[in-house]
Amino acid sequence: MTVEDTRYDESGDTPLAGYALLATTFTAGVALFAAVARRRGLRLPQQVPPWDVALLGTATFKASRLLTKDKVTSFLRAPFTRRESDSTANEVMDQARGSGVRHAVGDLLSCPFCTSAWVAGALVCSYASAPKATRLMCAGLTAVTVSDWLHYGWSATAEAAES
């Protein structure tokens, strides 16, 4: 068996151990929540109403974008990522830096799709333990998402009027 046969990818620098650590951390967080919830007698909802799923989904979308793409939250990503370029709507494109766990965390913090699983996990745990407060927080993030779309619509209308 050659070295090339043992590689996961062409370059051989995909931080698989870092990814495994992140997956283990996520799983441990869920298990810890479940254990604490059970110990405290928390009654989990039998079902989640569609409106709450929509609120949780929209809030997950917006929180993921804020964490991974917003200029103002770049201080959170900076130890793990490097700014590649600016994008539209004051968003940025970051690239993971370093190797191992640092690179894996950088990949997580620069990908809204990856981060959304973590955000959704946190919101669902919050919803299970404090549904009213979580709905309020999710409503706030949903309001920001609606505002963003209104800004996009306003800008598109202004650009069309200038043409």
Describe the fold and architecture.
The protein has 163 residues and is mostly helical. It has helices at residues 3-6, 16-39, 50-69, 74-77, 100-109, 112-129, 131-162, and strands at residues 81-86, 92-96. It contains 7 helices and 2 strands; from the N terminus they run ααααββααα. Strands 1-2 form a two-stranded antiparallel sheet. Strand 1 and strand 2 (92-96) form a beta hairpin. The longest helix has 32 residues, at 131-162. It is flat, with a radius of gyration of 20 Å. The N and C termini lie far apart (63 Å). The model has no long low-confidence stretch (mean pLDDT 92).
Strand content: 5-15%
Compute the number of helices: 7
User: What do the pLDDT scores average to?
Assistant: 92
Q: How far from one another are the termini?
A: 63 Å
Computed structural class: mainly alpha
Name the strands of the widest sheet in spatial order.
1-2
Helix content: 55-70%
Major β-sheet annotation: 2 strands, antiparallel
Which stretches of 5+ consecutive residues score pLDDT under 50? none
Order of helices and strands: HHHHEEHHH
Our Rg estimate from Cα atoms comes to 20 Å
Strand-helix topology:
Blueprint: H1 3-6, H2 16-39, H3 50-69, H4 74-77, E1 81-86, E2 92-96, H5 100-109, H6 112-129, H7 131-162
Antiparallel strand pairs: 1-2
Helix pairs in contact: 2-5, 2-6, 3-6, 3-7, 6-7
